[in-house]
Amino acid sequence: MSTAILLGDSHSQVHFTHLMNMFPNLNVLERHSNPGWSTKSYLNSDILDKLPSADTIIVGLGGNNQKLDESFDETVTTFLSALKQKGIKNIIWLGPFWSDPNIRADVLKRHEWTNQRLKQILPSTIKYIDTFPISFGLETTDGVHFSSSKYKNMMEQLLPTIQSQIGTINSFVRINKWWLLS
User: 162: which residues sit within 8 A by CB, 6+ positions away?
Assistant: First the structure.
């Protein structure tokens, strides 16, 4: 059975729950969904130091990046080094979601910058998943976050991509009957 760690921000409080339901046989060793956290927040805590080794880590970070300059690159590199020191080789990174510019233009600016930057700087060994296409234009609850059903729908759209990256648990994915009929 594959092992995984889930590290994220406020969005992951909901979408990690949906992912765990879609992968019921994935052995999640630890889950951290901290509102307002970024890669820098995790580096400044002791969480990364205490992580166990796992087959895969799913990172759901990017929306709380406050450094919209090259210093972000070094923070991401240090973050990835900390994960690799734990023996984690398979890293799946869910990028920041779209935000409604009529309500939170400031957040959209950060999310867009960070999304583009992560696409540029992450090594090719990291599977980066751009969440903008699946979240663009969706109704938000506060300009930034989505309803649970919207997160679930987005994770269902990403399921084949995530499933292909996790590897050995592919045969254990739970598919709802309505998927087979649609």
Answer: 19, 58, 92, 129, 155
pLDDT of the residue at 1 = 76
Q: Which stretches in the chain have pLDDT values below 50?
A: 168-182
Q: Could you tell me if 85 and 48 are in contact, meaning their C-beta atoms sit under 8 angstroms apart?
A: no
Region of residue 69 (left: phi > 0; alpha: psi -120 to 50; beta: else) = beta
φ/ψ of residue 58, rounded to 5: -110, 120
Give the sheet arrangement for strand 90-94, strand by strand.
27-33, 3-8, 56-60, 90-94, 127-129
pLDDT at 25: 85
* Region class of 160: left (phi > 0), else alpha (psi between -120 and 50), else beta: alpha
- pLDDT (tens digit, 9 = 90+) per residue, 106-158? 999 999 999 999 999 999 999 999 999 999 999 999 999 999 999 999 999 99
* Contact status, residue 131 vs residue 97, Cβ threshold 8 Å: yes
**Residue 167's pLDDT is what?**
66
Q: 118 and 72 in contact (C-beta within 8 Å)?
A: no
Nearest one of 56, 54, 30, 26 to 42, comparing CA atoms: 30
Cβ neighbours for 93, distance < 8 A, ≥ 6 positions apart: 58, 59, 60, 61, 62, 118, 122, 126, 127, 128, 129
